[in-house]
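User: Reviewer 2 asked us to show a designed sequence for the structure in our supplementary figure. I'm pasting the C-alpha cells here. Could you produce the per-position amino acids so we can include them in the response letter?
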C-alpha cells in the first residue's frame, strides 16, 4: 500500500510540473528551434532560440526590427487551445522527437498598423522612406512593385533572407494575435 501511495505522489508531482511547464511556455517564455534558411544570415537552420511570450499574452504590438515567431495560418482565428498545443509541439521538436510545426515561422517586423509599405527595385520603403537593412542576407531580386497599407491590429513581417522566405509578401499582414512572441536569445 505504501508503494502505491508513493507512486501516486510522484505521478501527481510530475503531472503538476508538466502542467506548470506548459503554462509557462504558452504564456511567458518558450524555447524553439529554427527550421529553414529564411532568416539567414542571422539565424540558421537548427539554431535554438528563446522567445518571450509576454507581448502575445498581453496583446502588444511588436517594434520595428523585432524578430518574432508567428502563426502563419492568418486566415483562421487563434484560440487558447492553440496557445497550449503549440508549446507541447515545440517541446517535442526541441527534443527532436518531432519536427517543428510548419505553421510557426520566425520573421522580422517591417511594418506596423497604418504603415504604407512599398517594395520596388529590390528595396523596401516604409511611409516613402527606404529602409536601411544591414541584417538582410542580400538584396532582393527585383519583382513586380507591391504596395500595401498595414491594417489596424496587424503587422507586416519578412525574412532576412529575402530571396528565400515565405512571409507577408505571400500571406499578407499578420494579425497581432498571431504574433506569438519575440526572440530574446539565440544559442
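Assistant: Here is a per-position design you can include in the supplement:
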Amino acid at each position: 500500500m505504501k508503494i502505491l501511495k508513493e507512486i501516486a505522489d510522484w505521478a501527481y508531482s510530475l503531472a503538476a510540473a508538466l502542467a506548470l511547464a506548459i503554462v509557462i511556455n504558452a504564456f511567458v517564455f518558450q524555447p524553439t528551434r529554427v527550421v529553414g534558411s529564411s532568416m539567414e544570415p542571422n539565424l540558421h537552420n537548427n539554431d535554438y532560440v528563446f522567445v518571450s511570450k509576454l507581448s502575445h499574452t498581453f496583446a502588444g504590438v511588436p517594434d520595428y526590427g523585432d524578430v518574432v515567431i508567428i502563426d502563419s495560418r492568418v486566415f483562421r482565428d487563434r484560440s487558447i487551445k492553440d496557445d497550449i498545443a503549440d508549446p507541447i509541439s515545440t517541446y517535442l521538436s526541441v527534443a527532436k522527437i518531432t519536427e517543428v510545426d510548419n505553421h510557426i515561422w520566425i520573421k522580422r517586423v517591417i511594418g506596423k498598423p497604418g504603415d504604407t509599405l512599398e517594395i520596388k527595385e529590390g528595396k523596401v520603403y516604409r511611409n516613402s522612406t527606404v529602409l536601411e537593412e544591414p541584417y538582410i542576407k542580400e538584396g532582393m531580386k527585383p519583382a513586380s512593385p507591391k504596395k500595401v497599407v498595414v491594417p489596424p491590429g496587424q503587422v507586416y513581417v519578412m525574412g532576412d533572407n529575402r530571396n528565400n522566405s515565405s512571409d507577408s509578401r505571400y500571406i499578407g499582414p499578420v494579425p497581432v494575435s498571431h504574433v506569438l512572441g519575440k526572440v530574446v536569445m539565440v544559442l
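For the response letter, you might also mention the following. The chain has one domain: 2-111+152-186. The domain at 2-111+152-186 is CATH 2.10.109.10 (Umud Fragment, subunit A).
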